[in-house]
Design a protein that fits this description.
The longest helix is centred in the last third of the chain and has 13 residues, at 373-385. Strands 6, 8, 9, 12, 13, 20 and 21 form a 7-stranded mixed β-sheet that branches. Strands 16-15-14-17-18-19 form a 6-stranded parallel β-sheet, sandwiched between helices. It is 28% helix and 25% strand. It has helices spanning 15-22, 70-78, 124-130, 178-181, 207-210, 223-229, 232-242, 258-269, 282-291, 301-311, 327-335, 356-360, 373-385, 404-412; strands at residues 46-49, 52-56, 61-65, 85-93, 96-103, 113-121, 140-141, 146-153, 165-168, 171-172, 192-193, 201-204, 211-213, 250-254, 274-278, 295-297, 317-322, 337-345, 365-368, 397-400, 419-422. The two termini are 42 Å apart. α7 (232-242) packs across α8, α7 packs across α13 (373-385) and α10 (301-311) packs parallel to α11 (327-335). By secondary structure, the chain is an alpha/beta fold. Mean pLDDT is 84; it is low at 1-82. The protein contains 14 helices and 21 strands. It binds zinc ion (2 copies). One zinc ion (ZN) is lined by residues 123, 125, 144-145, 170, 231. One zinc ion binds next to loops.
């Protein structure tokens, strides 16, 4: 049986190399192209084969990349005019982002969709890799926030069609399991983390459960705000909902990155009476005010918690949204919450250690995790289209895919709050 490359055209790679690459990794009773599951492989997500690396997501092989120069030389050599390749950001090592040619993604399972990117961006969580705090298993595609036009769908996809402008969450979900129907799509039994969105095209699994169509033909000026729904707004919104933000309540937001600022916006939309933004940067304080913050606290630690208590009748905030993920920010969040209050946390935890006493004595509720952005997407898109909210203001700088390394640098050095990648 001839080998067929998943996620690419066979012609993108020399057939000799293709056979060499795939043969050892394919179970004898399956052909690549059948939607080989990761469990079919003996190794985990990355299978080194003679110096090449086969990349898989949870269900399907998505890409092939090699370390060093070899792939680029080979790809260039075998690339012809009618063959397709796309440009994509690849992280090689901390601080080392390059834009390279990769195979064109294709639909491989009936629930897949391929989208052509209209807008993407760099996320604060990409910086965990860029700064080497998270191990870089590079070279690897990167990026998980996306808006694009559907190019192709699998046979069973019914809710989106080629030509639709769509936004999806950074976690794909089937939309049908009991966890999805409970509204926790980011913990779907079929979930897989989207990566490789900083590219001209993206393969999205479980398209029906993951993608939402943007109605009409929105003006391009709305693209930044629409893209913000894909992660930062959805995440900030979930943080506020997890913290039980509601009418008449006091809210404290810890973290003044794009997610924190969007949590301020969410608190304002959800009717909070007092919204305290903890921020030490004047540009971010200004945006927090614009998004609805009523008070700014720039102190940290005990002094910061005391300032929050002063602003809330000595009690602490009803709701605290933790948007950083460090031990220090979690401590700050717990200390700023009143007894019986709710802390919603959406910062990816790095070095957070809690004991029972941290929650028991102060009688605090704690709820968070990777945001089920899909739950909120239709509502958030409506609010953007109707110009009720403008979360796109968190994008302070615009770059192209080819200059995305500069976008990473600008965010790493905190010159940009968030970097928008335009495909115009
Ligand atoms: Zn993100
Ligand atoms: Zn599900």
């Amino acid at each position: 049986m001839p080998l067929k490359w998943v996620g690419s055209t066979t012609a993108s790679f020399p057939s000799a190399v293709e056979g060499l690459l795939l043969q050892p990794a394919i179970p004898s009773n399956r052909a690549v192209g059948d939607g080989i599951e990761q469990s079919a492989f003996s190794a985990a997500t990355r299978v080194p084969v003679r110096g090449w690396i086969l990349c898989c997501n949870v269900r399907t092989i998505t890409a092939i990349i090699t370390p060093g120069e070899k792939i680029r030389a080979d790809t260039r050599h075998h690339h012809t005019q009618e063959e397709k390749a796309l440009r994509a950001a690849i992280i090689h090592a901390p601080g080392d982002i390059r834009v390279e040619n990769r195979p064109d993604p294709v639909v491989t399972t009936p629930t897949d969709a391929v989208i052509r990117m209209v807008a993407t961006c760099v996320c604060g969580s990409d910086l965990w890799h860029y700064r080497g705090i998270n191990k870089v298993k590079g070279p690897a595609p990167i990026g998980h926030e996306y808006m694009g036009v559907v190019e192709a769908v699998g046979d069973s996809v019914t809710t989106v069609s080629p030509g639709d402008l769509v936004i999806g969450s950074f976690i794909s979900s089937d939309g049908t399991c009991g966890i999805c129907t409970d509204g926790y799509q980011s913990a779907c039994v079929e979930r897989s983390f989207v990566t490789g969105a900083q590219a001209e095209k993206l393969l999205v699994s479980h398209a029906d459960g993951t993608l939402v169509t943007v109605p009409g033909r929105p003006d391009k000026s709305l693209y930044p705000s629409l893209l913000a729904c894909s992660d930062v707004l959805g995440t900030g919104w979930f943080g506020a909902v997890a913290a039980e933000v509601g009418a008449g309540k006091s809210v404290c937001v810890v973290g003044d990155g794009a997610v924190g600022l969007c949590a301020v916006l969410a608190a304002s939309q959800l009717g909070a009476e007092k919204i305290i933004a903890m921020s030490g940067h004047s540009d971010r304080q200004k945006l927090a005010r614009r998004f609805g913050a009523t008070d700014i606290v720039d102190a940290r630690g005990d002094e910061g918690a005391a300032a929050v208590k002063d602003l809330t009748g000595g009690l602490g905030a009803h709701s605290v949204v933790e948007c950083v993920g460090t031990g220090e920010s979690m401590k700050q969040s717990l200390a700023s919450c009143r007894p019986g209050g709710h802390v919603g946390y959406v910062g990816v935890p790095h070095g957070i250690e809690l004991t029972g006493k941290d929650l028991f004595g102060p009688m605090l509720h704690l709820h968070g995790g990777p945001a089920p952005v899909r739950r909120f997407l239709p509502d958030l898109i409506d609010r953007v289209i109707s110009k009720t909210i403008e979360p796109g203001l968190v994008f302070t700088d615009t770059f192209t895919l080819e200059t995305i390394a500069d976008a990473y640098r600008a965010m790493d050095e905190r010159r940009a709050i968030k970097a928008f990648i335009s495909f115009d």
